[in-house]
Amino acid sequence: MSSLHPTAIVDESATIEPEVCIGPFAIIGPSVRVGRGTEICARATVERNANIGSGCYIGSGAIIGGDPQDLKFSGEATWVDIGDNTRIREYVTVNRGTAASERTVVGSGCLLMSYVHVGHDCRIGDDVVLANGVELGGHVFISDSVVVGGSTSIHQFVRVGERAFIGGRSSVPRDIPPYIKAAGDPLKLYGTNTLGLRRAGVSSETRLALKRAYRLIFNSELPLSQALTKLKESNCTVPEVHQLLEFVTSSERGVSR
Question: Does residue 126 carry a catalytic annotation?
Answer without folding.
Answer: no
